Amino acid sequence: MEVVAEEKQDNRTTLETLIHQNDRPKLDVFMENLSTVDLARAFSRLDKEDRTRLLEIIGYEKSAGLISKISDVGGPNIVEQIPHVQAVSIIEEMRSDRQADVLQKLKEDNAESILQDMGAVRARQIRQLMRYPENTAGGLMITDFLSYTGKQQVKDVLDDFQRHSEKYSDFDVQYVYVVSDTGKLLGVLRLRDLLLSPKDRLISEIMIKKLLKVDVDASFQELRDFFRQYSFLGVPVTDKEGKLVGIVRSALVREAANKRNNQMFLKFAGIVGGEEFRTMSLFKRSSRRLSWLSINIVLNIIAASVIALYQDTLERAIVLAVFLPIISDMSGCSGNQAVAVSIRELTLGLVRPREIWRVLSKESAIGIVNGIALGCLLGGAALLWKGNPYLGLVVGVSLAANTLVAVSFGGLVPLILRGLHTDPALASGPLLTTITDMCGFFFVLSFASFLLPKLSG
Length: 457
What we know:
Largest sheet: 3 strands, mixed
Helix content: 55-70%
Number of helices: 23
Number of strands: 6
Oligomer: single chain
Strand content: 5-15%
Order of helices and strands: HHHHHHHHHHEHHEEHHEHEEHHHHHHHH
CATH architecture of the largest domain: Orthogonal Bundle
Distance between the termini: 56 Å
Mean pLDDT: 81
CATH topology of the largest domain: Tetracycline Repressor, domain 2
Radius of gyration: 29 Å
């Protein structure tokens, strides 16, 4: 571990040295040889002056590539920490999808200020992209593509390539799209067909007319299903009128899938907003964590109030205090399993929010089987420990009943929250914890109250 730590420290030290030496060639080589994670770590640990100086040395184009490369591990946060003029120039060099992605993560005032200083046409395109929901075709598409009208000839397209070769070199060009005068998508043209066709032929004569496309409002799951079925590098995106508005690349869908998985993990851990980096301001990091923890305090007080109602029972059978956290924790684990399955199926589109009764029947069956098995195990352990069959009966039945409640509720709550347009990954945890704690405490202490003479005798 110490060797790894020293290696990472050397990356930052080397970066600092090259910055102070103002050695761009060595900086370019050094950064190209670092992995995305190592580069993000080294860059994030530079002080503000060195970060700004590094971006000045490598230039706007390289800086755009750097921030795009580490955009998922703190890139937007870095943009807010550099001078405004520098930020505008760097973002102007990015691809359209990266521009929208970075600006969406900035404070609204900062994003709008940058947009106002960009070119009017580009700013309008980015604002349009920012209006689309993040995990839709519109939110994932790029607007850097090549399209021509079907009336143009092959030579017109090739001449345009030559005139704008420097600009198009930044595009990820695989196909040329053929559109009508109004922008409606008519077909797609492979570069191979374009280069090998006579120059006087109309591109409408050599284009592929039967093409696949997706709607601008297509969901993330629809896009994943599309690229699982077709091994395309990209797919054209059209609006309701059939006009070509962008291209979704398969690589972007894969990146989005990884990003969603990471965000879901953080949401389960209680990080509001789905991401946190230590390069963020102390106030932002603290507020994101406290917003979750503050709610949990209230919910835990509600759950603990059940114990207060049965304080006399607990005092007379203090041994129950040993089993309360066990029952609560075991039921919570069972419930979280059901939550995970429901969220997974919602994500894959295998279940819809309205299918409550189907999910309830499936989960309650598991709750009964697992509840009986776990109840017997815990009840047997209580019997062996204290030799009191009534204690074993109380804790065993309580765990079985609470497991049934936890699994059933855990399976349903993501569906209910999704139906209410609330993020199930963020809200399911505290709700499940409160329910399992309250029900667990209630089952144990209420059952114990009926058998109190047998437990305390």
